[in-house]
Amino acid sequence: MNLHYQVDGEGSAIVLIHGLFGSADNLGLLARSLKDKYKVISVDLRNHGRSPHSEHFTYREMANDVLNVIDQLDIEQFSLIGHSMGGKVAMAMTELAKDKLDRLLILDMAPVHYHVHRHQNVFAGLREVAKHTVGKRSEAETYLAMHVIEPGVRQFLLKSFAKQDSGQYGWRFNVEGLIANYDTIMGWEEITPFHGKTLFVKGQNSDYILPEHREAIGRQFPAAKAHMVANTGHWLHAEKPETVNRIILNFLQAA
């Protein structure tokens, strides 16, 4: 699958991979902080952004999609930064391209199967909007608000509400495809241990990386280090961008 992507800057290559319901734009602050020193490749994963839709949505398939972009750009060595679901895509890539991978940085995600359904209200809101003919974002937000209470979450989702080729407005991500594959998205199949340089960055108030995940992280990423960002949740890079950007640069530039 040919993903939509954008390239900024020059230098060593870094690939940014967004999370569920996101797009390349979600890591824009991070891309802007890195592009002065690196070649930054920001991708839209399948079923997201401007990339094609598919009923197939496994982490290995998504990892291969991103590797296809890297091959198109003739990049021999690269580092990966993935947030949330994008972190799992990045972790899955270690099995497919460990010899090309310089450094791996995971933002608030563990290599585990999550058993809690976290997005029922979001899917209900997305389906609610899709029931109606909507001509602008403010209308879409009215329907979305029937199920999604948090204004910040609504604004994040509405970044992917846009005019389609048909001229009608709709979601850029594949709502029904994501619902059908939700167990796969929340799941995880353990990978062969990756011994390269790896950093897990956790939001202090987030429950995506917990003490009980330490064993699974150590088993699959024996060389991994960890860093906690105080007073942040799952969207740590949006809540404290300067802090997170500094952590990332320090990790990338360390010997």
From TrEMBL:
Gene3D superfamilies: alpha/beta hydrolase (3.40.50.1820). Keywords: Hydrolase. GO terms for molecular function: hydrolase activity. It comes from the Bacteria. It holds the Pfam family Abhydrolase_6. PANTHER family: PROTEIN ABHD11 (PTHR46118). This is Alpha/beta hydrolase. It comes from Photobacterium sanctipauli. The lineage of its organism: Bacteria, Pseudomonadati, Pseudomonadota, Gammaproteobacteria, Vibrionales.
